[in-house]
Amino acid sequence: MDNKLMLMIPGPTPVPEAALLAMAKHPMGHRSKEFDAIFAECTENLKWLHQTSGDVLSLTVSGTGAMEAGIINFLSAGDRVLVGTNGKFGERWAEVAVAYGLNAEIIKAEWGQPLNPEDFREKLEADTEKQIKAVIVTHSETSTGVLNDLETINRHVKAHGEALIMVDAVTSLGAVSVPMEAWGLDVIASGSQKAYMIPPGLGFVAVSPKAWKAYKTATLPRYYLDLGKYSKDAAKNTTPFTPPVNMFFALQASLQMMKAEGLENVFARHRRLMTTTRAAVKALGLPLFAADGAASPAITSVMPPASVDAQKVRTLMRKKFDIALADGQDHLKGKIFRIGHLGFVCDRDILAAISALEVVLQELGHEGCTPGAGIAAAAKELAGS
Q1: Deepest in the core among 3, 140, 189, 317, taking most CB within 10 A?
Q2: Which residues have C-beta within 8 Å of that of residue 233, sequence separation ≥ 6?
């Protein structure tokens, strides 16, 4: 029998039935009053999720497209920007910045380690002539499972006064609080296939008034990703270009689910899934790639001992249990595996994944734990939460 595939990767994430059924409806005209009403509801709920009253714009792009739009709409060639890199996606934003002729200065940490806010403070305080125009930070580094200290880095940016802060929140938005207005964040980019609980295809860019002021003088080329067009049309509950209509049906359903659960409950669930997964993995004698104090609530990266082949773990999890885990990226490929726990994931999913992992580890001859230790640790964590 073909089993139900269980996605335990950082994206795409599982999609709830309500969103799948919504997508199965016949399309409607994207210039119709009916679609305008759906779009308006989605926009309002996106603002709720971002904790802002300002613009949250929907684009037909991936998370990378949303982040690129967030960079090119507010900067000009030659602008000095600081880019934090401690994984695959931080490095990607540095590549995007260079591709558009920005003067990108890298603030680096080793993969698996969080960015040091003090490194940003030193650069920003030394910039007495206010030449730094933006600071680009990946909040949850998907490639490593590290959550960077966005709040502290942002405080240093605010003290600078001139620079914008641009945030890759692709695997943090909806999994951890990203209070846009309270923190004064300027640009936040995210993607539909993560904590939004729907398939890939939509990207979102939230924009502050300070960023819109910079937009007026920014000169990087833009057309399809010109956020000014999206903002103007969003005010009329429409889009400048043809949107993926059925994806908005799904977005409407998923945001309704999140609102029914409640924002703090959504965040608490992700914290619980994170702590449960990490406790179980530790009990199984497997080292974690990110330290407890810098762990992402979206994904747990595991660096198994030499006696356990990470690739074989992933292969057997898929073959025996139809559970998909993510590989490492770049130089970590085949050296770690990543367990996603964001979006439409519940306690039962974690228990199932840990049980399967225990079976796989036993089959691979892992002797670093007592059988049942992972589930016992998970149960204890859930009972106390």
Answers
A1: 140
A2: 239, 240
